[in-house]
Amino acid sequence: MIQVLRDRMKGLKVFSRGIHPPHRKKYSESLPIRVYVPKGELMIPMVQHIGAPCEPVVKAREEVVFGQKIADVDAPVSAPIHATVTGKIGVGTVCLLPSGRRVPALPLKPAECGALPTNVLEDFLDRHWDGVDPAGYDPDAIVQAVREAGVVGQGGATFPTHFKLRRNPKTPIDTVILNGCECEPYLTADHRLMVEAPEPIVIGLQLAVHACGAERGIIAIEENKPDAIEAMRKAIAGRPGLDVVVCATQYPMGGERQLIAAILGREVPSAPQGLPLHVRVVVVNVATAHSIARGVVKGKPFTHRVVSVTGGGVVEPGNWLVPVGTMFSELIAACGGVKPDAVKVLAGGPMMGPTVPHLDVPVTKGVGGITIMTEAETAHWLESPCMRCGRCVSNCPLYLSTTKIAHAVMHRDYDLAEKYHMSACCECGCCSYVCPAGIPLAQYIRAGKNQVWVIAAQKKVQDQKAG
Amino acid sequence: MSEAQSVSPSKAEPAAAKERGFLVSSAPHLADKATTSRIMFEVVLAMVPLLVAGIYFFHFAAVTLTVLCVAGCLAAEAVANRMRGWSQASLRDGSAVVTGMILAFSLPASMASGSRFYMAFLGGVVAIALGKAVFGGLGNNLFNPAMVGRAFLMICFPAAMAAWVSTAPMLQEAKKTLAAEKGVSLEALGREDVDAITTATPLYQAAKLSEYVAKAKAEPEKRDAWLAQAGQIRDEMPGLWRLAIGNVGGCVGETSALIALICGLWLVMRGVADWRPPAALLAVVVLFAGLAHWINPDRFPGPLYHLTSGALMFGAFFIATDYVGAPLTPSGRLLFGAGVGLLVMLIRTFGAYPEGVMFAILIMNALTPLIERATHPKPFGGQLQT
Questions:
Q1: Looking at the partner chain, which of A357, A379, A389 has a beta carbon nearest the beta carbon of B29?
Q2: How does pLDDT run across B298-321, given as a tens digit for each residue?
Q3: Given an 8 Å threshold on Cβ–Cβ distance, is A432 in contact with B376?
Q4: Pairing of the two strands A42-45 and A342-347
Q5: What is the ipTM of this complex?
Q6: Residue B338: which of B375, B364, B366 has the closest Cα?
Q7: Which terminus of chain A, N or C, has fewer Cβ atoms within 10 Å?
């Protein structure tokens, strides 16, 4: 509470409630992006976005070249997948996603030589975009190009970006917010990208603003990234309708609802029905904007993304430009491997990132970081009785009665949990973070949401049988 | 903690986990430093200055009562754990110590003397046994355990619970006066001359004042006699500074409103206590007392008198902020505090008892589930209007 007041007095954008976890960005925030050239086989999952899974459009053992489309599906909410290196496709198989799901995947063996163009890093971080006029593009063409480039939200949700940018007369958009908050502790991928390639990000924002017919674009950055704020301010100079807004370092500032509330003071209706477009806003991650610019202006598909490998458990932290599909094991080996006291490997940051049981997991379009935590860094929970201190309720950024939902799930009363608006939960984890009794509230709620989904699916099957 | 750590998966398994891979757990993987026992420890720490004040005013009585109540609470907790077949881990979380201290601080000093010492122990046992253990332990009790214990003592030992004695500085003052009257030195006064002086609490005086003024109006023929009594009471009523410091008759830990306020504010700053219940409670008391005083200043003392007397300040920051009996919702907590404040003032002004913090807390505890339901928060943004 005192921290929020202090931030407010400094003129930073804040939202009500939320938490202030340690930043722990020091491991990798000052390390420049390096390119990673994979040696071993890549695994390209057919599910890298929310929506319909892709189907391969290439045959087994076919030779593919860097950037060639290898999978697609004809559905509105979907994004194609491209070959991230030049090489040979293997026989279709199943792989484990960082989220724990098992999905169909295509193995891709990189060619002995010339798997990647030699200038891939220079091309990715290219800062010469002066001649580009975003307003000169046709909005529909932008949306189509974004779809063809396979761009999905790179903040973690992996929602196909073109779907957000379509103009819809029923839901006009007035503001596009570029999310450069990176509120998860440890992660620095977006931070480095803003410092090293601010120009394409700005072009991407202008393209997004133009595509969805908005009036202005806002770049939101947390206060703890002064170099990124400066770089973005320089990059928007002389471009009307754009602004850089400095937000407080508050978790989950990078959540759409919190960000929109902090910057514009608008409340997005609760999930699952409510979306930012209901308050005339589109939120796009900075890395996504970078991909939009590359896809639309240069016709370059989404093959690479910046991944920060960080945490106390990795020998040499770093920020890497990685082809999608690279195995965790390879990338971590390139960082010198894990230290003996490493206990957890997370796909993402420590607040929302799922753990992976082993390192045979590919980097997907939504993985912005790999956090390797030591015994000492991770929290240890020993669940004790809830004493109704109310910290989870008063820190919930979505104003939910968190402990009530968790207890309803504990007693398998999912109807009661839904009465307490379980499905509005964004699983940010603030409740578990603050709970003095060590109750894994977010886990209970996640399990409850999953169970509700399972029950609905079972009911559907039964109805089909009966009908 | 050894037993606690051995069951924690992340403590026991890292070596084995290495061979198969890594630990799998649900996010988040970070946690705030606050734990139940740490919170309870901070509450105990915040009550230490009150104990010191209690020792200054009531000497050994404060220590004796605290030790007896805490012992009673811990004993009952241990027996309850044993009967349920639970581990004794709850003894270490500090919640029983907090209950024992709050109970001890709300007992009169005379209870520590002679044949009455068992009462405090019994109060502690009842607080935990009937106030907490029967409901299923920490977090499940409906009522504030310390207030349950105090209510039990008030019903069983009404005389002992109303036997207020003067503070040590007041006693010293009385001894000096007596010695001067007898014409002997202070040292020459024997224990038989003066040992303890029973005294009226400031709230008892306020209640009497109100009664006499009311009687003076009701019985015009005896008006002067009643007014004379009222005047005498008014002269005897302590000044605000004495009240704030706590050099007045009352419970061992509650008399010093100033120290309770400072320690309570520290707890709020630390984030241990929620600011809402005390803020709402004090605001309502000031409003109510201010209004009453404005209507009839002769009969009703002003807001500052109410704020500094009795258990009000202690109750606002240490009893009304008890997590378990208060609603979970932020707006519910404001209502809870306001309700306690209103009930305290109603009991003080119109009730048969001079002080009402205990009853107010217990009544609002009973209303908590209703308040919680009524103040159930709307999720952020509300439902989508289609």
A1: A379
A2: 888 889 999 998 889 999 999 999
A3: no
A4: unpaired
A5: 0.87
A6: B364
A7: C
